[in-house]
Design brief:
Distance between the termini of chain A: 23 Å
Structural class of chain B: alpha/beta
Largest sheet of chain A: none
Oligomer: heterodimer
Number of strands of chain B: 14
Helix content of chain A: over 70%
Shape of chain B: elongated
Strand content of chain A: under 5%
CATH topology of the largest domain in chain B: Rossmann fold
Radius of gyration of chain A: 22 Å
Structural class of chain A: mainly alpha
Number of helices of chain A: 13
Strand content of chain B: 15-25%
CATH superfamily of the largest domain in chain B: P-loop containing nucleotide triphosphate hydrolases
Largest interface: A-B, 45 and 58 residues
Shape of chain A: elongated
CATH architecture of the largest domain in chain B: 3-Layer(aba) Sandwich
Helix content of chain B: 25-40%
Number of strands of chain A: 0
Radius of gyration of chain B: 23 Å
Chain lengths: 286, 362
């Protein structure tokens, strides 16, 4: 990442300029490295804002923590599940997975905001990589989600959640959930690019979350659901992610749920990410 | 000025077309802007100004035609074009939660300028745009005028060869608007090619050395402010009557003094017509109306304004198009004026003094 070197390379087409323009004009760059370097610059825009907007961070944290407290104290003693003496040990990993889903909404709202306020046009008129605009946003949102996730995890420990697994399993479970959250960021990116206003992004980014979190293994085992709903709940990628991190946090065998969750995440990232970049690039010239 | 031996055109649009569904936004727009010039793209809302800018700045792909920036095709080499342009859109595209300095830093780095240069350049621009004292404050607390100035500064960070300003003063209060004019006038001085779009006639008149008038997706005129006004022709006499029943009487009395058809604005009860030399005709107008017993509220003689130009070209005033509320009281069609009789065009060179030049009545 050294734009200084490239500015003096004197690409022939960049030498045709009026005398008024006395400085070297760095040529446009392309390729994966350029995209990543641009994405990091764009990501710093959002990352710089985080410490300055404590309220945004507080609300992003308050929501999952509130859910943790509510569900733990309201449902904690009321529900029994097979294989767990304490429902909260079953419930809390699910609520953490749900928090990751909910916090992905910031991505669609952020993208819609940039579109509405014209900032996206500014970025599109710059000689930067098209995909970097979206990568920068999703990177920085991943950083933010990582912070709020760990605050939620801390809150879970404070209200009595106990890890059953070793450090490797715990870190693996958290990493898996955050990896899953990054695939959701691309779904939210697609929503942000498809709607015409911040308000619609707000609704569209949220509307699918309740069915997705309820028809999954977040709160109850899909085996207890009506027959026709069970296959839907089992096929839900959130179920795999929840099952995997629930098992790992509790020190149990996750079976193949880890691999299914990873495959889902990677698949969504690649497919939806490609659709997003295509949609974003096609709206301009190249 | 031009070192590459090219055509010398900073912007070259050839027959640009663009449709959105069945709506034809641009229907073959062609114009050229030489290097270092400040051009105005003037037209009412929906005329196609922003679409033209979006095509020229690679934000949109034209359906047909060709656009070159510094001789580089916007469709074939969009990346290269983007290294040479700066764009300030209709809304101040600044990151509100960062400071002015951080905004400039962000854009400078995305243009891939060396960091050291970004720092120096950002500081210069903050000075130039009178933002240095607020440079490290978060933009959220800036006034509209300050945001706009930062917006333009951000577009200039990489010293673009061509700067696009899409309605740079829309939404500003009159004082900020005038301050913005000063800023834009200074840009013209330092060799940057500027294409600014506006729906304000006075703005185009003051800032642009040449004006491309666009209406319904097509260029309807292209020339200097003076040339466009000369096309309209003579000075314009405007007589506001106390009683609208006197219109016929007034027309009979002063009809022989005019050089083109009358235009009657019923709402303001004002009768207007082109006259060969306003200041010489005015006393005679007063005498004749007095003799005919017509009570007059106000007499005004003015040189043609760009408003007259627009009316002349399109049969509509810009306000008619924009608001759709003004009563369509203009009774004549485009006046067919013999431009040879446009005697006072020399005095029209002072563009600042155009509107409301009331003559002293004896």
């Amino acid at each position: 990442m050294s734009p200084a070197d490239e500015s003096t390379s004197g690409v022939s087409s960049a030498s045709s300029r009026s005398l008024a323009v006395s400085i070297g004009r760095p040529p446009p760059r392309s390729g994966v490295r350029a995209a990543l370097s641009d994405a990091l610059i764009e990501a710093t825009r959002h990352l710089r804002i985080i410490p300055r907007n404590p309220e945004l961070m507080i609300f992003a944290t308050l929501q999952p923590v509130t859910f943790l407290l509510l569900t733990t104290f309201v449902f904690g003693d009321a529900i029994d599940v097979d294989g767990y003496d304490d429902y909260t040990q079953f419930l809390i990993p699910g609520v953490l997975a749900q928090a990751v889903v909910f916090n992905s909404a910031f991505t669609s709202v952020g993208i819609a905001e940039d579109m509405e306020k014209g900032f996206m046009d500014r970025l599109r008129s710059l000689p930067m990589s098209r995909s970097a605009v979206l990568l920068g946003r999703t990177f920085s949102d991943l950083v933010r989600n990582t912070i709020t996730f760990h605050i939620s995890l801390l809150a879970a420990l404070l209200i009595g959640f106990r890890f059953g697994g070793g450090l490797f399993e715990i870190a693996g479970a958290s990493a898996l959930l955050l990896f899953f959250s990054y695939s959701l960021a691309w779904i939210q990116t697609l929503i942000g690019l498809s709607v015409s206003s911040v308000e619609s992004a707000n609704s569209a980014g949220f509307i699918w979350m309740f069915p997705v979190t309820f028809v999954s293994s977040v709160y109850v085992d899909p085996d207890l659901m009506p027959g026709w709903l069970q296959p839907v709940a089992r096929a839900n990628p959130l179920s795999s992610a929840t099952d995997a991190c629930r098992a790992l946090y509790n020190g149990r065998d996750p079976g193949d749920s880890v691999w299914i969750a990873l495959a889902w995440s990677l698949g969504l990232m690649v497919v939806v990410g490609a659709i997003c970049v295509r949609k974003f690039s096609r709206s301009t010239v190249g | 000025m031009v070192v590459d031996g090219g055509s010398g055109q900073a912007i070259s649009a050839e027959g640009l077309t663009k449709s959105f569904g069945s709506f034809v936004a641009l229907d073959g727009v062609s114009f050229e802007v030489p290097r270092g010039a400040v051009y105005g793209l003037l037209g009412p809302n929906g005329a196609g100004k922003t679409t033209t800018v979006r095509l020229l700045t690679t934000l949109m792909r034209p359906d047909g035609g060709r656009a070159l920036i510094d001789g580089i095709d916007v469709v074939a080499e969009p990346g290269l074009v983007r290294t040479r342009i700066g764009l300030t859109g209709q809304y101040a595209a600044v990151e509100e939660r960062l400071t002015a300095r951080e905004n400039l830093d962000l854009i400078g780095r995305l243009y891939h300028l060396p960091r050291r240069e970004v720092t120096v350049r950002a500081n210069d621009l903050l000075e130039q745009f009178d933002l240095i004292d607020a440079a490290d404050r978060v933009v959220m607390h800036y006034s509209g005028g300050m945001r706009r100035r930062l917006d333009i500064a951000m577009s200039l960070i990489a010293r673009p060869s061509v700067l696009f300003l899409d309605e740079p003063t829309t939404g500003l209060d009159p004082r900020s608007r005038r301050a913005m004019w000063d800023v834009i006038e200074d840009l013209g001085g330092d060799g940057t090619t500027v294409l600014l779009t506006t729906q304000y006639l006075d703005e185009a008149d003051r800032l642009a050395e040449r004006i491309v008038v666009i209406d319904r997706g097509a260029v309807v005129a292209n020339g200097t402010s003076d040339e466009l006004k000369a096309d309209v022709g003579d000075d314009r006499l405007v007589v506001r009557l106390a009683d609208h029943l006197d219109v016929d009487l007034a027309m009979d009395a002063i009809g022989s003094l005019r050089s083109g058809p009358f235009d009657f604005d019923a709402r303001r009860v004002s009768l207007s017509a082109p006259v060969p030399s306003g200041s010489r005709v005015a006393p005679e107008v007063v005498r004749r109306l007095d003799r005919a017993g017509v009570e007059v509220v106000d007499i005004e003689v003015r040189r043609p304004t760009l408003d007259d130009v627009f009316l002349h070209l399109t049969d509509r005033t810009i306000e008619d198009v924009d608001t759709d509320t003004a009563p369509d009281a203009h009774t004549d069609t485009a006046p067919d004026v013999d431009t040879d009789t446009a005697s006072d065009t020399d005095t029209a060179s002072d563009t600042d003094a155009v509107p409301d030049a009331h003559t002293d009545l004896p």
